[in-house]
């Protein structure tokens, strides 16, 4: 079974600084997707960034970028120029790429605090 | 506006009193799913549906039922709620594509407290 591990329950960063959230996963599949979701105090699940395993290039979305290491099964999220609005719980998630149950397997989350 | 809606958003109930949480999407998505979120456990899938009248269990289906009579609706039914079903519930939907490329859209969540 696939598992996703986020080993940092809490992180904090000074406003305008850079922070990296860690995620590792375990799978025997070769084709899959990885995601980072943000959950602010409103509890809404917001997609931050996605990575397709067959693409070697790391995904970027404005201040958010990932470091995808397929052999190491590692998928970290880097937030540059941290802003107060980045404060949230961040979940790493995995989904196998096939026609069927599109279940997302989530990690346990990392709570990010931004220090003004 | 493309969206997934859930009702109610907050619910306090008592053990054993049947309840239904509704989920509706306006994007004509084939795939719909229910997750529950608990502290320290992340989100876990309860049930999913690939299309009308096609449903199957996820990782934590015990104590829950679902139905998919219409494409847009996917209600979650708790026949006899218990305190261990106190949780935050999310409905999600997406199109079904051959390589599973589409991203899931999440509803706003339903916070349930069972006393």
Class based on secondary structure composition and strand pairing of chain A: mainly beta
Strand content range of chain A = over 45%
Q: pLDDT below 50 for ≥5 consecutive residues: which ranges of chain B?
A: none
Q: Mean of the pLDDT scores of chain A? A: 94
Largest sheet of chain A: 6 strands, mixed
Please tally the helical runs of chain A, counting DSSP H or I stretches of 4 or more residues: 0
The coarse silhouette of chain B is: globular
Q: What does the radius of gyration of chain A come to? A: 14 Å
Question: Could you explain the architecture of this structure?
Answer:
The complex is a heterodimer of chains A (116) and B (115). By secondary structure, chain A is mainly beta. Chain A is built from no helices and twelve strands. In chain A, the strands form three sheets. In chain A, strands 2, 5, 6, 10, 11 and 12 form a six-stranded mixed sheet that branches. In chain A, β7 and β8 form a beta hairpin. The radius of gyration of chain A is 14 Å and the shape is globular. The mean pLDDT of chain A is 94. With 115 residues, chain B is an all-beta fold. In chain B, the strands form two sheets. In chain B, strands 2, 4, 5, 6, 9, 10 and 11 form a seven-stranded mixed sheet that branches. In chain B, β4 (31-38) and β5 form a beta hairpin. The mean pLDDT of chain B is 94. Chains A and B meet through β6 and β10 of A and β4, β5 and β9 of B.
